[in-house]
């Protein structure tokens, strides 16, 4: 074999390998989806979505679980959105490059890597016990806010960094203050990116079970929560609970609930992609 | 010359980026309602000096100035000077057209809006006046609510000038305003500068020697952070005092 032939062979070999690597994730996801769909799709009907949990698999529904998930979703965004964005704006626009800023920066990156169950323990102690919120929705939302804050802060900073210097210069040169420049120019221009980050962070929060189990979210909640101080459950916990039951019918329920949970996260991710594309088209330099 | 009223003066001005000495002992006095051009090779400090005139360098970490810059006889680096007030008086146009990603109208009235002006009639009138001043009105009057980013580069730059004029400054700083533009757009901007100097004091940084010759009344030649020569443009271009100036304007280095 000549050298040229060898090179061509290597080239070909890498192509095949690359295709394999690219598709491996997709294939696994597809197998997973098909498996879940076969098992659970038939179980999903209006009753399943609007029924309270029950000891009998055939009568059990996910009403309280998805209601809890919705509560958590809304409260977590209300808490984490302003905090994360404000922190990101501060770090990117205001803070001087001091040692303290460096320290903060490194630690926010560290926080993003802390396992979610640790946040659960922290949340249980701080929100559950010290603040006396127990296993309420509010305690859960606060805990999940801590979990997603680093992600929101980091994506906010990235989005703000992408706004060109020249836009800030133009605003400052017209006599605008830092806040006016941030509010009128930097935030609108980076909003698409920020929102994308926030939604992705939320779709992660929606899938979390561990920290909520730790703070004491219950698997069996026979009522729909009506206030932030109510006890609650969420879809991942419901799924976790059903899969640990011995009866096969509950596994079918779990599969059906997984489909609903996946639907919620796919919708969230879809919105994120849509927003990103929309804003990218609008803001060009 | 000593009896004249100068619009802008620098006295023993030194500027530093960290330990880098960017401007060395600059002494200059710029006349009101005249065009002063700053020329010199890249890195000579001309842009740095321009940006000290409206304190745009304040945001650069490690930047500091010593000495005085006087606007109408008042030190703009004095403690009681508010930067936003200063910048209402000293407008700026940048190298690359940098309209906001907003409508044409919003671009022009931005400066007024952040001052808290809300009266729609005043805003509309000011927008029209500023756009007429920059000869842009006829080109954009039917699309004021369209994005400014849809304009051509030359139009964008004139929009940026209109935006600066809308808050009625008395000084306009221009940092190589035509370096990103084609010759026709450049000619329009130069024409505009010629017209504007009836009402405004203009300071322009340019890399283009011919441009300095065409538009300016006075020229300052900077080299390595020093002001080498400052004179009437015609004098400087016909009989420069320093050899370095001579070499630069004849294109022997740069």
Automatic annotation (TrEMBL), chain A:
Residues 66-272 form the ABC transmembrane type-1 domain. It comes from the Bacteria. Its main location: membrane. Keywords: Cell membrane, Membrane, Transmembrane, Transmembrane helix, Transport. The keyword Glycosyltransferase does not apply. Gene3D superfamilies: MetI-like. The keyword Electron transport does not apply. SUPFAM superfamilies: MetI-like. It is a multi-pass membrane protein. The chain crosses the membrane at residues 16-38, 70-91, 103-122, 134-155, 205-223, 250-275. It is found in: Cell membrane. It holds the Pfam family BPD_transp_1. PANTHER family: PHOSPHATE TRANSPORT SYSTEM PERMEASE PROTEIN PSTA, PHOSPHATE TRANSPORT SYSTEM PERMEASE PROTEIN PSTA-RELATED. Belongs to the binding-protein-dependent transport system permease family. CysTW subfamily. This is Phosphate transport system permease protein PstA. It comes from Pontibacter ruber.
TrEMBL record, chain B:
Keywords: ATP-binding, Nucleotide-binding, Phosphate transport, Transport. SMART domains: AAA. InterPro entries: AAA+_ATPase, ABC_transporter-like_ATP-bd, ABC_transporter-like_CS, P-loop_NTPase, PstB-like. Signal peptide: none annotated. GO terms for molecular function: ATP binding. Residues 32-242 form the AAA+ ATPase domain. The keyword Transport applies. The keyword ATP-binding applies. NCBIfam families: 3a0107s01c2. PANTHER family: ABC TRANSPORTER I FAMILY MEMBER 17 (PTHR43423:SF1). This is Phosphate ABC transporter ATP-binding protein PstB. It comes from Pontibacter ruber.
């Amino acid at each position: 074999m000549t050298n040229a032939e060898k090179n061509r062979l290597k080239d070909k070999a890498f192509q095949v390998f690359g295709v394999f690597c690219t598709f491996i994730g997709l294939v696994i996801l597809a197998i997973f989806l098909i498996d879940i769909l076969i098992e659970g799709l038939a179980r999903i009907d209006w009753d399943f979505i609007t029924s309270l949990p029950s000891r009998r698999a055939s009568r059990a529904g996910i009403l309280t679980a998805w209601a809890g998930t919705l509560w958590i979703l809304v409260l977590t965004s209300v808490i984490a959105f302003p905090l994360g964005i404000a922190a990101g704006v501060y770090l990117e626009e205001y803070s001087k490059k001091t040692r303290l800023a460096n320290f903060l920066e490194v630690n926010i990156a560290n926080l993003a890597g802390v396992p979610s169950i640790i946040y659960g323990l922290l949340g249980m102690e701080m929100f559950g016990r010290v603040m006396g919120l127990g296993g309420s929705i509010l305690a859960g939302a606060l805990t999940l806010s801590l979990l997603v804050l680093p992600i929101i802060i980091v994506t906010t900073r990235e989005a703000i960094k992408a706004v060109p210097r020249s836009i800030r210069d133009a605003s400052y040169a017209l006599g605008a203050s830092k806040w006016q420049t941030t509010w009128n120019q930097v935030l609108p221009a980076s909003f698409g990116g920020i929102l994308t980050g926030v939604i992705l962070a939320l779709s992660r929060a929606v899938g979390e079970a561990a920290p909520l189990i730790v703070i004491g979210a219950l698997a069996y909640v026979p009522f729909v929560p009506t206030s932030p101080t109510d006890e609650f459950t969420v879809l991942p916990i419901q799924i976790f609970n059903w899969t640990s039951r011995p009866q096969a019918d509950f596994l079918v329920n779990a599969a059906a609930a997984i489909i609903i949970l996946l639907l919620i996260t796919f919708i969230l991710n879809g919105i994120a992609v849509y927003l990103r594309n929309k804003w990218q088209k609008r803001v060009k330099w | 010359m000593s009896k004249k009223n100068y619009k802008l003066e620098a006295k023993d001005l030194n500027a530093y980026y960290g330990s880098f000495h960017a401007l060395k002992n600059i002494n200059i006095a710029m006349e009101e309602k005249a065009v002063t051009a700053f020329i010199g090779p890249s890195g000579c400090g001309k842009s740095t000096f321009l940006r000290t005139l409206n304190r745009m360098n304040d945001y650069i970490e490690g930047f500091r100035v010593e000495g005085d810059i006087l606007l109408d006889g008042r030190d703009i680096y004095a403690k009681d000077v508010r930067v936003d007030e200063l910048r209402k008086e000293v407008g700026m146009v940048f190298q690359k057209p940098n309209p906001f990603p907003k409508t044409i109208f919003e671009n022009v009235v931005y400066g007024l809006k952040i001052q808290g002006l809300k009266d729609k009639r005043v805003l509309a009138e000011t927008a029209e006046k500023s756009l007429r001043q920059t000869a842009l009105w006829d080109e954009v009057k039917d699309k004021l609510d369209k994005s400014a980013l849809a304009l051509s580069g030359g139009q964008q730059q004139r929009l940026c000038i209109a935006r600066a004029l809308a808050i009625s400054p008395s000084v306009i700083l221009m940092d190589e305003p035509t370096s990103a533009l084609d010759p026709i757009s450049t000619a329009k901007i130069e024409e505009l500068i010629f017209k504007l100097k009836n009402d405004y004091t203009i300071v322009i940084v340019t890399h283009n020697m011919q441009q300095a010759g065409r538009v300016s009344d006075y020229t300052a030649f900077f080299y390595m952070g020093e002001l080498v020569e400052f004179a009437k443009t015609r004098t400087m271009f016909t009989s420069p005092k320093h050899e370095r100036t001579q070499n630069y304007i004849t294109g022997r280095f740069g």
